[in-house]
Amino acid sequence: GEGVTQLKTPTRLPPLGGERAVSVTSGLVHSLALAADGAVWSWGSGLSGRLGHGAWQHQLLPKKVEAFAARRVVAVSAGPFHSLALAADGAVWSWGDGGEGRLGHGDNQRQLLPKQVEALAGQRVIAVSAEDHSLALTAAGAVWSWGCGGWGKLGHGDEQNQLLPKKVEAFAGRCVVAVSAGGDHSIATNSDGAV
């Protein structure tokens, strides 16, 4: 809130519209919370539209992302420059800084409001993870990646940026059950416990 620059002890946030939070995620300078009713709340730096409110304004308090008013979100992930949300129907949404293709819309444009990643429309996504790149895990155990490809973190055998989600073929024949995007790498676990 107003005038608070640093807290040295855990401090409870104001209620999210009367709903309890079921998950939280933090990026470099912004945070997201998912409420029990499927609403997404964001606060922090609004640079490049990473908060999803249609503007660059900073939010000192959690504010509901109204673009999701008609749909239920089941997971959120905040990267340094962008945000991802997974809807109950398996659709992936992204917003913020689109540099290096991290939003998955086929370009480098920023999105001030959440926009569905159309390239994943035929996939049933069950998890997402955002960093300088983005990962999506499908119900079939396939991994898709896009965004900054430096250091081979997209898993395609090169260091090329991907403007659209691309399936990681190295996992063919394996069932991945969890993924996480790191600053310069990615990690996955498959159904037999291998990492």
Per-chain topology:
Blueprint lengths: L20 E6 L3 E6 L4 E5 L14 E6 L8 E6 L3 E6 L4 E5 L14 E6 L8 E6 L2 E6 L4 E5 L14 E6 L8 E6 L4 E5 L5
Antiparallel strand pairs: 1-2, 2-3, 3-4, 5-6, 6-7, 7-8, 9-10, 10-11, 11-12, 13-14
Q: What's the short version?
A:
The protein is mainly beta and 195 residues long. It has strands at 21-26, 30-35, 40-44, 59-64, 73-78, 82-87, 92-96, 111-116, 125-130, 133-138, 143-147, 162-167, 176-181, 186-190.
Care to describe what's here?
This protein has 195 residues and is an all-beta fold. Strands 1-2-3-4 form a 4-stranded antiparallel beta sheet, with no helix packed on it. The chain has no helices and 14 strands. The mean pLDDT is 96. 0% of the residues lie in helices and 41% in strands. The chain is globular.
Label this structure with key terms.
0% helix; mainly beta; globular; 14 strands; single chain; 4-stranded antiparallel β-sheet; 195 residues
Strand content: 35-45%
Mean of residue pLDDT values: 96
Outline the biggest β-sheet. 4 strands, antiparallel
Q: Could you give the count of β-strands?
A: 14
Helix proportion range: under 10%
Shape descriptor: globular
| C-alpha end-to-end distance | 41 Å
Compute the number of helices: 0
**Radius of gyration over C-alpha positions, nearest whole angstrom:** 16 Å
In the predicted model, the low-confidence regions spanning at least 5 consecutive residues are none
Side by side, the strands of the main sheet go 1-2-3-4
Going by helix content, strand content and strand pairing, the class is: mainly beta
SSE order, one letter for each helix or strand: EEEEEEEEEEEEEE
